[in-house]
Specification:
Elements lengths: L24 E9 L5 E9 L50 H74 L4 H12 L45 H5 L9 E3 L6 E3 L20 H5 L9 H15 L10 E4 L2 E3 H8 L3 H10 L9 E3 H10 L3 E4 L20 E2 L3 E6 L5 H9 L16 E6 L6 E6 L7 H9 L3 E7 L6 H13 L3 E6 L8 H9 L13 E4 L8 H15 L2 E2 L6 E10 L3 E10 L2 E2 L3 E4 L2 E9 L5 E2 L1 E2 L3 E8 L8 E5 L2 H24 L5 H10 L3 E9 L2 H14 L4 E10 L4 H10 L2 E5 L5 H10 L3 E4 L2 H13 L5 E18 L3 E11 L1 E2 L3 E6 L2 E13 L2 E2 L2 E2 L4 E6 L10 E10 L4
Length: 902
């Protein structure tokens, strides 16, 4: 019934009697007997079972044929009761007023409307019920059809099985006579067994007349095999194999004799149940005994044995094939046997095991030959959609510009930033030069907008840092000293800016010096295709002084103007993307990465991926050292929460969950290991590469372990050391990392007899003690120039020295004297130069060197002398050589050893 909630309607009354459902449970009591005369009254509940398909279908009342009667209309205001009509009383009836008549009319109209609405809703409900009943009826009919088809199939299978058994008996020599003897015993077990001499009944005859019934014990039938039974053809035609009659053979070669049926005694009335009385037997007392579970399983196995010969339907699957896959995995994805896959590979002439890895092309051929569809994937697909997602133009907003300050060393880049930030970063740098890349934010005093500055080192070792700063920037400020002009790192900064395709603003610094020449700087910039505005070009130039803070506001104004021209916009509501500018391993805070957010907003709790490292953001620290909860576009922050320090220059992205982050980092770590293994193993390449490997095979190596404070400095040190190597000697970096020197570093250095270099880091107490105990040298540096120079000197000591000959003089042999106990002595005259004792000599005969050695004796008359001048005569004897002749020339020289350097 529909409740329209119309004011003035009468409320329906509910009868006071409570409605309830009668449970389908019948209870009774059973007395249970125990040993020693004990008994117990047991309450037994019997629940009726719902059987699908048994009995007539439940009657469903037709609601659509007869709609529900409408509720009687209730007037909004009760009318006064009409007085009983009494013709003889003479009382005059009062007529209805206008208000009463209008109220009654409105009540009747509302009742009619409700009646129409209720009739419509009743019709719709009846239609839905009819549709639902039709669907249920169709489902029941389909179930009944399936059940009948299943019964028919079982009957055909039983008939086929029975025919097969009959044929088997005929084939094994069992004649018609034993079969005929068994049939009357099975058909009428109540009859007395035939005598041994009695003739057997003919096949096809029965002992009972049609239409007559005899009493039989439970479990016996009076029908022939194959005749229909009351419980179904399957149960009547096929007796259980456990209950089959036993056959007794007389002996070898004798015919089988049927066993006599067991004698049964029939008593009037129902047969008494045997066995213990349990709740299960009490509940199932009225049910017909069915097959046991074991028998049903045996029958199912027999049916499956017949069905296994039927051909199975081929399943076509979409197989996802990566770049490399094992045979076992490929077979599993295709739902095929691995033996079949190996067989197909053997047909193609390839012998494989089940654990062998095959390439994607071979796997695709195998899968397509087996009829499957193939979807090729690559391992790099995990990085799809991680970066460079296009923003919707309607959601973008203006962001702050990112400005990179570049230039030659000691041209005043950091001092200029300090003047803009009102800070003093220069005083904290070792040697007064910048060796770290930094990111800061400055608020423009005129416009009030923020500008992000990136400070890069200027000296030659930090080329990668300058390139990294140019990649993430929008504007490059090229700082050139007015008293120094364009230098090599200035030219390199110009090339980085051109490669990144970003606009350049030239800041001519140190104009306060007396020897400053800004015009010379502008002229030298023309040689490198940088034409400033004063020379008719498009490059803005500003003359500034970081020391006196001259024209700093003009520089900020030019940067803001250039940013407006670029129209920098991005979406701040999307997941964050950025670049790792610097990374280090802090002892108290763990891995710390300086990140410049380029798109989106980075928040605390985000799951981030950078290179081969992942993590969850634990804290965000601004350039002023304050903890913030989020960082928008163009904001530099320090991120805490990485599993390890990422490499400088890695791109950072926020992913949706840790599973995606693990996939990306595992793929990148695998690629990193493969690249490292390929570089170490020295894979065979072109002929030139093989020749260079042969050339460098015998060169000496200088083993080193390098630890630095940040990733960028470590990168610069490794690059500088790599450039020091030559064909004869090279630096071998055993391990390079960020953080302090630990005991594991000392242990590694001990194994390879290597030196440990610490750049702006120190060894802990245990590592220092272990190094002192094992004699491992640890050197600490704060300036990269000193580090490179010391390593260069140490590597120079490994170079083989250069040998240089210095000619002393020549002597001619005039006579040979044979002296006992000494040997042959040559009497000579020095023709030019001098002859020294212990010098190297060559014996030349007919312009051919016949011997090289040393002088053992040099005498002048009878005295041993140190040297003999030109024009004098002397006696000479060689070490271990006596074949001297008159007329030979002796050449005397000295060998000098010269130490080489890189």
């Amino acid at each position: 019934m529909v409740d329209t909630k119309t004011p003035g309607d009468k409320k329906l009354s509910v009868p006071s009697k409570t409605l309830s459902l009668k449970p389908r449970v019948e209870t009774g009591t059973v007395r249970q007997s125990f040993s020693h005369g004990r008994s117990k009254q047991v309450v037994v509940e019997k629940r009726g079972k719902r059987r699908i398909g048994d009995g007539p279908e439940p009657h469903v009342p037709e609601v659509a044929a007869k709609p529900a009667p409408a509720a009687p209309a209730a007037p909004s205001r009760p009318a006064p009761p009409a007085p009983p009509r009494n013709a003889g009383s003479g009382v005059v009836l009062r007529t209805l007023t206008e208000d009463e008549r209008s109220a009654r009319a409105s009540a009747l109209a509302d009742a009619k409307l409700r009646e129409v609405e209720e009739r419509r809703q009743a019709e719709e409900e009846a239609q839905r019920r009819a549709v639902r009943e039709a669907a249920e009826r169709a489902e029941r009919e389909a179930a009944e059809a399936r059940r009948k088809a299943e019964d028919e199939r079982h009957r055909h299978e039983d008939e086929a099985k029975r025919k097969a058994e009959t044929e088997a008996k005929k084939r094994f020599g069992e004649g018609e006579q034993p079969a005929a003897a068994v049939r009357p015993a099975t058909a009428a077990p109540a009859a007395p067994a035939p005598r041994p001499g009695a003739p057997a009944a003919r096949p096809g005859t029965t002992t009972t007349r049609p239409g007559t019934t005899t009493a039989r014990p439970a479990g016996t039938t009076a029908q022939r095999p194959g005749a229909p039974a009351g419980r179904g053809p399957a149960v009547a035609a096929e007796p259980d194999e456990d209950e089959a009659p036993r056959q007794i053979r007389r002996g070898p070669g004798g015919a089988a004799r049927p066993a006599p049926p067991p004698k049964t005694t029939h008593k009037p009335g129902p047969q008494k149940e045997r066995g213990r009385l349990t709740v299960v037997t009490a509940l199932n007392a009225d049910e017909v005994r069915e097959r046991s579970i074991a028998s049903f399983r045996r029958r199912t196995q027999r049916l499956k044995g017949h069905a296994s010969n039927e051909p199975k339907e081929k399943l076509i699957r979409e197989v996802i094939i990566p770049e490399a896959i094992t045979i076992q995995e490929l077979a599993n994805r295709m739902a095929e046997r691995a033996v079949d896959v190996i067989r197909m590979l053997m047909k193609q002439g390839a012998m494989h095991k089940i654990t062998d890895v095959i390439d994607a092309d071979t796997a695709q051929l195998i899968a397509e030959e087996l009829g499957h569809t193939v979807k090729r994937v690559a391992a790099s697909d995990v990085e799809e959609g991680l970066f460079d997602t296009v923003d919707d133009s309607t959601d973008t907003e203006t962001r702050s510009p990112v400005v990179t300050v570049m230039g030659h060393v000691d041209h005043g880049k950091t001092s200029l930033l300090d003047a803009l930030r009102h800070a003093n970063v220069v005083s904290g740098e070792a040697g007064g030069i910048t060796q770290h890349i930094g990111a800061y934010q400055v608020v423009s005093p005129e416009s009030g907008k923020k500008i992000t500055f990136i400070d890069t080192p200027g000296h030659a070792a930090f080329t990668a840092m300058r390139a990294r700063g140019a990649k993430v920037t929008d504007i490059v400020v090229l700082v050139v000293a007015a008293d120094d002009g364009v230098m090599p790192q200035t030219v390199e900064a110009i090339n980085h800016a051109k490669a990144a395709r970003v606009p350049i603003i030239v800041a001519i610094n140190k104009i306060d010096k007396p020897d400053a020449k800004p015009e010379r700087v502008r002229t030298e910039l023309l040689q490198h295709e940088v034409q400033v505005e004063s020379f008719g070009g498009e490059v803005v130039d500003v003359e500034v002084s970081a020391k006196n803070k001259t024209n700093l506001d003009k520089l900020l104004e030019m940067i803001a103007l250039q940013a407006e021209i670029l129209d920098l916009k991005t979406n701040s509501q999307r997941p964050a993307e950025g670049t790792v500018i610097e990374a280090k391993l802090d002892r108290g805070r763990g891995p710390v990465a300086t990140v410049l957010v380029q798109r989106g907003t980075l928040r605390v709790g985000d799951i981030i991926v950078a290179g081969a490292e992942m993590g969850r953001v634990r804290a965000l620290i601004s350039d002023q050292g304050e903890t913030v909860q989020e960082a928008g576009p163009s904001v530099p922050v320090e991120v805490l929460g990485f599993n390890g320090p990422p490499e400088a220059g890695d791109r950072l992205a926020v992913v949706e969950n840790e599973a995606r982050a693990r996939q990306v980092t595992s793929y990148r770590a695998h690629q990193k290991r493969e690249n490292a293994a390929a570089s170490i193993s020295g894979m065979r390449g072109s002929l030139e590469q093989m020749m260079s490997q042969l050339k460098t095979a015998g060169r000496k190596e200088f083993p080193l372990i390098v630890k630095a404070d940040v990733q960028g400095s470590l990168e610069a040190i490794l690059g500088s050391l790599e450039k020091l190597g030559t064909d004869e000697v090279a630096a071998r970096i055993l391990h390079a990392g960020v953080g302090g020197i630990s005991e594991s570093d000392v242990t590694l250095a001990e194994g390879f007899n290597a030196a440990i270099i610490g750049f702006s880091v120190r060894a802990n107490k245990e590592a220092a003690a272990a190094a002192k105990r094992n004699g491992i040298e640890i050197r600490y540096y704060n300036i990269i120039y000193d580090l490179v120079d010391d390593v260069k000197k140490a590597m120079s000591g490994l170079l083989a020295p250069t040998l240089r000959e210095t000619m002393l003089g020549n002597a001619e042999i005039l006579e040979i004297f044979n002296i006992s106990k000494v040997g042959k002595v040559a009497g000579c005259r020095v023709t030019d130069g001098t002859v020294e004792r212990g010098a190297n000599v060559r014996l030349i005969r007919d312009n051919v060197v016949v011997h090289e050695g040393k002088l053992s004796t040099l005498k002048r008359f009878k005295d041993e002398v140190k040297e003999v001048q030109s024009g004098q005569e002397c006696g000479m004897a060689f070490e271990s050589y006596h074949d001297m002749r008159v007329g030979d020339v002796i050449e005397c020289y000295r060998v000098e050893t010269i130490q080489r350097s890189l």
